[in-house]
Amino acid sequence: MAPSVQTLPTSVSDEIYANVKWEELGFGFYRTDNMYVAKCKHGESFQEGSIVPYADFQISPCSAVLNYGQGLYEGLKAYRTEDGRIMLFRPDQNALRLQSGAHRLCMPYPSVDQFVSAVKQVVLANKKWIPPPGRGTLYIRPILFGSGPILGSLPVPEYTFTVFACPVGRFHQDNAGLNLKIEDKFRRAFPSGTGGVKSITNYSPVWITLAEAKAQGFSDVLFLDAATGKNVEELFASNVFIVKGNVVSTPEISGTILPGVTRKSIIELTRDFGYKVEERIVPVEDLLDAEEVFCTGTAAIVTTIASVTFKETKTEFKTGDKTLAAKLFATLTDIQMGRVEDKKGWTMELTDATTPGLKF
Ligand code: COI
User: Matching Gene3D superfamilies, A to Z (predicted)?
Assistant: First the structure.
């Protein structure tokens, strides 16, 4: 489901917006003006970094990230509201997830305050790239990686924390809902591996499955657990939910499922609507028996799943305006876009004053 396209507010002018054809915005790389960089030597803590013009990095060919995949990324968004405010959604949750991943991958990490401050600075330094309300969002990409050279044994001498941002439109283009393929050969994560943290190494190893599924006409893949191959885990980059009657189920956080910030928020909103939410093992049979299926993620927001194909058999699910997914999408985006009062305390409003010393 996509945010509805609205008429541009009258305040849109060249002064406050970059020269972008907002209506053509997809979900791709867009070079913006500024980024944040902080470095940390082995045995030290991250100190305040700085905003610098967006540019390529110079990096050692022997760096830990290039040779051993020591890296994590996060994804969150900045939203421009109808009344001209700029909002972030739960950036502290991304900071905490980055910390948990850094622990798993043996890296020092920025404090929650440093993380949130870096995100705010990047948004304000790229303010004109935040799309007008209803036309998209500014996707923010914090990355933490081993930038120092390492050939043999630890320690890695240097780490880099960087944040950049790109204006984005919709992640999925399928208006009527996604058509998924259950991937029955490759697994995304395995017990005690890194599936539960946002390691950069979780993604490219399964591009092969995504490429094959897309070539066959599917929108995305749904992975099964590595231990038994019987239970559903998640899509390429989003969590999955199934609805049956008044019960909504989603795979439990067990080390192989990414603890999505949107997932956590949707569980809370679903409970507020009076549904029973179960975080549990979800066998493929339960998914195929569901009335409705949807996925959640920062990029995906809340997206309806129209069908799932498993071993050549296609099962269809309820789609459209009357689904729980539609209601959750509307409720979540109303909070994120500042269209309703945020009773949860999930949003953070940005003003230049929240980042002392910065002038834009
Ligand atoms: C996100 O939703 O932030 C993700 O990490 C998905 C990414 C593939 C765009």
Answer: 3.30.470.10, D-amino Acid Aminotransferase, subunit A, domain 2
